[in-house]
Amino acid sequence: MFTSNHGGNIREAAALAGVDPAQLIDFSANINPLGMPATLRRAIVEHLDAAQRYPDPEYLALHQALAKHLNVPTSWLMAGNGETELIFQLLAHLAPRHALLLTPGFAEYRRALSRVGCRITDYPLTEADGWQPDSRLLAALTPDLDCLVLCTPNNPTGLMPDRGLMKAIVSRCAELNIALVIDEAFIDFMPDAAGCAGWLAEHPQLWILRSLTKFYAIPGLRLGYVINSDASRVAALRASREPWTINAFAALAGEIVLDDAAYQQATFQWLETERPWLWQSLNELPDLTLWPGEANYLFFRYDGEEDLQRRLLAQQILIRSCANYPGLDKRYFRVAVKSRSDNEALIAALTAISRDTNRGA
Ligand SMILES: Cc1ncc(COP(=O)(O)O)c(C=O)c1O
């Protein structure tokens, strides 16, 4: 229905619905509904003059703030204008010849790899396996590969692979000298998840990508970072980049928000309440099959007759159709977990649609 590969395309959706974009409830982009932290809003207003100067080309204060937060040396880090920029910069820098991608997965890995002429082999995750990889993935890691990209938790399923399997994948990639790129864009929403950062020191072939845009609700400001324990590789990556791609306010955001423990706690509390509520409410609807996503979004299959995305759009609700993910089709959808009132509006609209369908049957 839309020209873009992603959720969050409220301009096109609003035009289709014949409403103002501000009237749409957007469940298609997975952004923290608490909005940008008040501490950041204040800091931006106080530092508006920063727009009149070039940002520090080394982004020293930003890198120091990230390093302190992650407890790693600054030389392991490079920040970027959103994680998307880093997906492209990193994969261009690594310039792999043959990469393995899991499907379904985030679309930009494929675009970034294609741009550097990399051959791509797909590794399909299937519904029969609960959309989760297992030890067969280890066997698929063969010496002809030089890159594997994983997303944990995965987009669109929100599922985390088994930790033992992840450790085995990291070791196997080290053995075979396969660059392992792990996208942890949504891991901040999982306070109890260890993630893969603890394995960086011993595994210089491991690259971790993270985003601040979702958790801190700044997709229009944009900030992400990449971590790797080989300081000389990171220095080379930094040297290869264009200057000043992170604007002054995004850099300031990185210096402010990581210390905002109150905002982080409020986010964890909201998600701890709202995700189970939304999951349960969706699960009670007929024709829906849900998976136990652990991030700030939920993935489901709809087996009813309706064009669900269009029907909801007519009620000014935008959800993400997953029809354009390789390995999925038009039965699959992803919805962000939002505020209780927005979540209630989604459930009410879906309930009305299923009532209409059953009345017609
Ligand atoms: C899995 C995944 N990685 C990375 C990104 C990009 O994040 P950013 O907004 O920081 O560029 C997205 C955005 O939707 C995503 O879903």
Outline type: globular
CATH topology of the largest domain: Aspartate Aminotransferase, domain 2
The fourth-level CATH homologous superfamily of the largest domain is Type I PLP-dependent aspartate aminotransferase-like (Major domain)
- Domains (count): 2
Tag the structure with descriptive keywords.
361 residues, 2 domains, Aspartate Aminotransferase, domain 2, globular, Aspartate Aminotransferase, domain 1, 13 strands, alpha/beta, 12 helices, 38% helix
SSE blueprint and pairings:
Blueprint: H1 10-17, E1 25-26, H2 38-46, H3 60-70, E2 77-80, H4 83-94, E3 98-103, H5 108-115, E4 119-124, H6 136-140, E5 147-151, H7 163-176, E6 179-183, E7 206-211, E8 224-227, H8 231-239, H9 248-257, H10 261-283, E9 288-290, E10 297-302, H11 308-313, E11 317-318, E12 320-321, E13 332-336, H12 340-360
Parallel strand pairs: 1-11, 3-4, 3-5, 5-6, 6-7
Antiparallel strand pairs: 2-8, 7-8, 9-10, 10-13, 12-13
How would you portray this structure in words?
The protein is α/β, with parallel strands linked by helices. It folds into two domains: 127 residues, Aspartate Aminotransferase, domain 1 (Alpha-Beta Complex); 220 residues, Aspartate Aminotransferase, domain 2. It is 38% helix and 16% strand. It has twelve helices and 13 strands. Strands 2-8-7-6-5-3-4 form a seven-stranded mixed beta sheet, sandwiched between helices. It has a four-stranded antiparallel beta sheet with strand order 9-10-13-12, with helices on one face. Strand 3, helix 5 and strand 4 form a beta-alpha-beta unit. Helix 4 runs parallel beside helix 5. The longest helix has 23 residues. It is globular, with a radius of gyration of 21 Å. The model has no long low-confidence stretch (mean pLDDT 96). The site of pyridoxal-5'-phosphate (PLP) has 13 residues, from helix 4.
